[in-house]
Records
---
Amino acid sequence: TSTITRETAPISLKTFNVPNTDSKVAKATAAVYDWDTFKFEPIRESQVSRAMTRRYFKDLDTYAESDIVIVGAGSSGLTAAYILARARPDLKIAIIEANVAVGGGCFLGGQLFSSMVLRKPADQFIRELGIEYEEEDNFIVVKHAALFITKLCSKVLELPNVKLFNATCVEDLITRPTDDGKVRVAGVVTNWTLVSMHHDDQSCMDPNTINAKIIISCTGHDGPMGAFCVKRLVSQGYIQRNQMGCLDMNRAEDAIVKGTREVFPGLIVAGMELSECDSSNRMGPTFGAMVLSGVKAAEEALNIYET
Ligand code: AHZ
């Protein structure tokens, strides 16, 4: 191993002379950095590699046996993670997200419009996160959907009992026979998303696995991706597929929240994925149900843990 000695003192306000200037910008930056003498601390490339890979492999080891796996880091999945991880700091929660970026359909409010609408009473959760909003009668508006999802995600990632594996795809479910002759979901089969995308033109690259007592699937409605766990269970004849109904905001949001449940032993489904097994309506760009479905999924998981 190689060691690089730290020769410079840690950066502090006292390390640098603050030049006397009237420029507001210069004042703001010069308070911390003197660009004339500025220099990064030295580094060896292998230090960067080791800093990342050591932690990642430790996480793979730690979370190979998780308590709860959440599939999909959109608005419903991240809300479920936030509630669960805070309620039970003793549980290990792995979030698997196929995309590089988190957020799913929540970086825009709808079409290419930025603000995000949430119907009441989901405003309570937005206050809990400390996000500012405007009130309009029966709903609230957050000025940018990305403000909501990035704030939620940063709060989730700060929690010590959560690991987000992004750019990682759930390719299959692990199932187990139960004592009463039935079957339950007992984990997920994962692969790098880039590998999953190339199964047709590369030789077989076998996947990896995570065991868990409970899986919460939040992969969104069917499309190029999405509804993954529901579709997999349907393919085995374990549950029946009932495709998402047409858009009806009023019916859709109540149905998704109330319907959030363990649809198959070991598998809770939340968010828009639920519409693919319940045939509930599409809701379009209103996100209250995604948030409260995440809350309900967390409660369902806690009930299973506590019984
Ligand atoms: O990348 C997906 C997205 O971030 C991820 N995902 C899908 N399949 C996956 C797999 N493995 C790992 N096999 C996977 N990750 O799941 C996330 C789903 O996020 P989403 O925002 O699509 O779902 P949601 O149910 O949380 O929110 C739905 C938001 C919608 S869609 C809609 C409409 O079409 O009317 N209305 C709302 C509010």
---
Amino acid sequence: EKGGYDHFMLKEIFEQPQTIYDSLRGRLDAKKGTLTMGGIREYADVLSNANRIVIVACGTSWHAGLVAEYIIEELCRIPVEVEYASEFRYRNPVIGEGDVIIAVSQSGETADTLVAIESAKEKGAIILGICNVVGSSIARASQAGAYTHAGPEIGVASTKAFTAQLAVLTLTALKIAAEKGSISEQRFQHLLDELEDVSDKVATALELNDQIKEIADKYKDARDFLFLGRGYNFPVALEGALKLKEISYIHAEGYPAAEMKHGPIALVDENLPVVFVATKDTYYEKVVSNIQEIKARKGKVIAIITEGDETIPAMADDVIIVPEADELVAPMISVIPLQLLAYHVGVLKGYDVDKPRNLAKSVTVE
Ligand code: M6R
């Protein structure tokens, strides 16, 4: 049932070229330049006229929501907030008609997320559910939605569900932008083409598995890790830190790279591995300066970079080279090495990565 892999987590990481393809299949036709989303068709108008969009989720799904915030604001010019479902529910949020809530959940059963959307619905908001499990409670409580089609995710650490969420949230943003007329035809077509190429690029990133295992071995005894990224890669840094914590029990924190100098930089010394998600994008030059700040304090830098980059390899202790992609779709590719890093560190430390201690696959208590 593990398909020849030692663990479900590794199997699911390696399934991603297929699961990303499955999440796009039947929706995206790059050749024709079309995008079909059956589950939101009736609400396309409501979505494109939304006053604001609030994304509610927990854990990894919340990280997918953060990427979506950047994408939706960029393409649709609608204000977006991303909320931890548990906080949103309890602080009596200002919600009303004209607000759209996007609930993101792999299981569709997360109690905090479910309760949050039920109370928002009572206040007149429209709920769009992005779930993986078909027929789940959150899917049923939503008026509109799209399934991620990643197939059953068994590993407690979410991997393939995350990239499928990113794929579907990007499609949703493109659909709203097209409806609203806030995106040019050329950019729309370009992003459809980029989305279509993601599966192959993820397959290329998976070829780094052996190299990442070596890097994992080199740093597995570290007490703490820092994960840094900016822009679309900032949530990827958060996700890398969460994966490592869950699977290897090493303390890890994710930060926006520039925020580091406002405090966390005090932690940097020669024993601290700092993982930079530093692919070529709008923020690249700034991230290079942030890497210099870490090196000046003797931190160990492991950088996820784009092929062809000649600057960062001269500065970093280890580089992991991924294929080039438009910055909006890059997170689906740059997260792959971080999933593999967490996996290998956990396995090398002798832990049961499919069932990390204290965690359940879905958290059905508030
Ligand atoms: O099923 P959901 O997507 O609603 O679950 C949300 C979180 O509980 C989940 O992402 C959790 O953080 C995972 N263990 C992350 O790997």
---
Amino acid sequence: MLKLNGLSKTYKTGDTALSDVSLDVQKGQLIGLIGPSGAGKSTLIRCINRLVEPSSGEVWLGDVDLVKLSRSELRHQRRRIGMIFQEYALVERLTVMENVLSGRLGYVSFWRSWLRRYEPRDIQRAYELLDRVGLLQHADKRADALSGGQRQRVGIARALMQDPDLLLVDEPTASLDPKTSRQIMRLLTEICAERDLPAIVNIHDVPLAQAFMQRIVGLRAGRVVFDGAPDGLSEAV
Ligand code: ADP
Ligand code: ADP
């Protein structure tokens, strides 16, 4: 589903954040990305959807190499990649429902179509997703009225609203307490299994990664130093 070939990134500052990273991600596979601060985890996540431009290498999503696309082609292909962030990136003054709907169209088109009202089938779908993440009764609340865990559930529903082929998840639980973190990880793993959706999760919390991920990729100084099942990790490090 996703194949990285020799992905490297050196920033203009001269910092080499990734060196020759290759990864093969199967459908439905949940990959936990671990490693010390500065290892290149966020750079890797950001190179996949070209929020950061790779210096070299290939990023195959299905049969498309995203690195070779023009900006306008990329915009189209990015719809296939759902992003979930540490700080949720919700629009505070919009309702939960509106935040989820914005995932369908992106923010700018969201306002345009909001003026013409939404397609009933999009609204139907947003309700189904809100139900799935356990937020149906909060659909009309403003995003800024929610707890951290609830906000991350909105983030998940919004990412699913675009019906992605891949999820990129950047430190989803870094702002959450341990109990809420486990609930969010459980929800994420269940949803990926239900939809056969692959996900790459940048997760600084190693025990949490071991508890929920099927495969762990360890980065150190921009290189893959571990790639395997969670139970192999204790022997490797
Ligand atoms: P790119 O090569 O992707 O264009 P740049 O080197 O231009 O990236 O840096 C992008 C931004 O990140 C700049 O504003 C830069 O100041 C900032 N930046 C520089 N060093 C770091 C760092 N170590 N960590 C995070 N951000 C940094
Ligand atoms: P991690 O997510 O594992 O903490 P990062 O991908 O943020 O690692 O950073 C990897 C390396 O790249 C670090 O040395 C960091 O300082 C550097 N880096 C990250 N972003 C930038 C940037 N925008 N400009 C320059 N250097 C950066």
---
Amino acid sequence: QSIPVITIDGPTASGKGTIASLVAQRLGWHTLDSGALYRLTALSCLRRGVDVQDEAQVQHAAQNLNVRFDYPHIYMDGDDVSDAIRQEEVGNLASQVAALPLVREALLQRQRDFRVAPGLVGDGRDMGTVVFPDAPLKIFLLADAEVRAQRRCKQLSEKGISANLTSLLADLRARDERDRSRTHAPLVPAQGAHIVDSSQLSIQEVVNKVLDLWSGIA
Ligand code: C5P
């Protein structure tokens, strides 16, 4: 019997991370925030002055990430980078490095290593399509772009980071477009994925929906 995985994929700011960690908490499972690995790769490039167009250099950065996850803290080279990787600049750069096939390949096994008993909830763009294609439950989480921009704006302002709704919306649409249209592991629902639109749902309602779906399988 293989270790169970629930995959939650979807566009930027659809609430994947929040839902994944609440579902994992309820089940007593581990989490994989796969976007963090792309963000860490981007930050590592920024800090080392690596040109993100240079695929071999970025691949090298991805292979040599020296990171430690201690949720909610993430450390790189001993530094707490939990806030630094959430900056919009790093997110935008992350979606550029994520389009490079050698970078995705470099991060693949690292992601699969998170599959540890009793189970894993993995969130990202290609959890159900590429990383854990055998997952028994796959969710594709959607929300309207305006709703996502508002959520992101609120999240940032709660952290004391000032944000502009119009530019957030534009960034988010650009990032969605890049994630959807790339050749390698584009953002598309996995075969058999349950599509959940969270635009009109509370966090708790989405969590319950996922848990209901899981209890129908387990
Ligand atoms: O989810 P998050 O916004 O943290 O992800 C940052 C970027 O990393 C995304 O815009 C996407 O381009 C990339 N990503 C990816 N595959 C994943 C997770 C994230 O390509 N599984």
